[in-house]
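Review box. Two proteins, two foldings.
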Amino acid sequence: MGCCVTASRVVIVLFNFLFIIIGLLFIAGGLFLKLGSSVYKGALDSVQASIEKSISDTGGGSVKLNLDLGSVTEPIMFAFIGIGLFLLVICFLGCCGACYKFRVLLILYIIPSILILATEIVVVILFLGAPSVIQTPLASSLKSGIQSDFQDISGTNLLSVAWNIAMQQFKCCGANDYNDFTGASKWNINKYTGSTLKTPLACCINLPTGSASGDLTCATSPTTSTNYLNTTLLIILAFIIFCYTGKVVPSDDGPIKKNKVAPINTVTQVKPRARPAIGQRKNKVSPARY
């Protein structure tokens, strides 16, 4: 029984070290989003510059697109750091409870672990067995934002700039397809004289710039060779945290009490008495003769 207790404590400690590493990685990812903007900002700036050039060449004038990365990455940053800190706290409770046999800490460790495990199982089942349960509400929310706030390639509001850059960067057109933009209240499909846009210009594989700035057929008569019209962008942000529950087996003396070290079971070995060799006579005291 004592071996089972020791083994379960060792398993809890070893697995907690693994989750400490995962928690630190989440925190590092959050700090990278906060402090490492110069690393990924270059890629976004190049896409932003090509969109600005296309706007200028197609007669949209000089437009400066300012995408506030902080407003986009800040919620993700806080989510990463929050998850990392939560994992570290859970690991701390598990390690202290296992090493020092604090019953309260073990309870505080096991309850969140069970909740996390249940959430993980539900998310995995939905993601693999019924992905539409997750994708449909997400796509509906993204489409609703497009319908209410998307302007066009020259739009300067956050949603328009974010969608234009995302569609060029990830080679897509809308959350489901180009039909997400049909009927958008702020999108002027007749902005360009003599042309009726079927998709935003940002859905074009090659943005109309330079000598081709007057050719808008990639958006007025889109095909799969000139437009990302049927390519989907479904940004599914799912944090699947692998966890487990540890079972501590009580000792023979009953439940382990707080701040009490369980006794170590020892067995006293008794050496057997050596048998006299065959033929060897015992030393006996002969009775005295009178």
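Next protein.
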Amino acid sequence: MSAVEPHRHDRQSRGLLAMLVALAALPLAALGCRHLAAVPALDPARLEETVGSAFNRGSPWQEGLPERHVVQAGQLVIHADFGLAEQHRLIRDLETLRTEVSQDLGLPISDEPVHLYLFSDTSRYDTFAARYFPNFPVRRAFFVETDTTLAVFAPWQDRIAEDLRHETTHGYVHAVVPTVPLWLDEGIAEHFELPRGSDGIHPQHVAHLGGRFLEGTWRLDLARLESLASAGEMSQDHYAESWAWVQWLLHTTPQRRR
């Protein structure tokens, strides 16, 4: 997917606004409102190596990582400090997400492992995040990319499916395209965090942007999105507008998908 060309910005802005107004007119219940090909697997011979080396004993993250159970699911290596069925529906959903991301974005499928570290409760997760990532914004889950590892950290809680779809999308994308503009990266993850069958329509963002637009308190500003340097700078406006751009690019014409 390419960035929006400057000389087309005004026309695209009008199209995006028209889409938002149309979506805002739909009943949220009709949008499924929530509150707020063959796929190659990892070579089994590499599994033990990747599990053991993801965060080796020299890593400051090693202490406190969930490791009681390890499950491989396609490209994912899932570490949990509680029992997790290998055929759990959430794991199957995340495997399917891999194909969705590849097909919808036109990206190849990678076999680089994406490690998911699942904590049994939010208190253990909060303690871990505060100790090793004190400068990160407070989030229910987060994704980390290093030179050698793609990793997701999350506690098991009521919105775990949404959180893992969002963060795992980052992993799938970064396994193929390591450098992605922040706004585009988050917009893509917001699009794919939604359950299958939603067509990427995000009721919370539709309501937020539609309301702001009708109030006259918000306008499109792609340059503002492009200036963002860290997730800590992103407000609800930024996440919603990033989602809207991705939704528009993916669901208008084939040319805009590129």
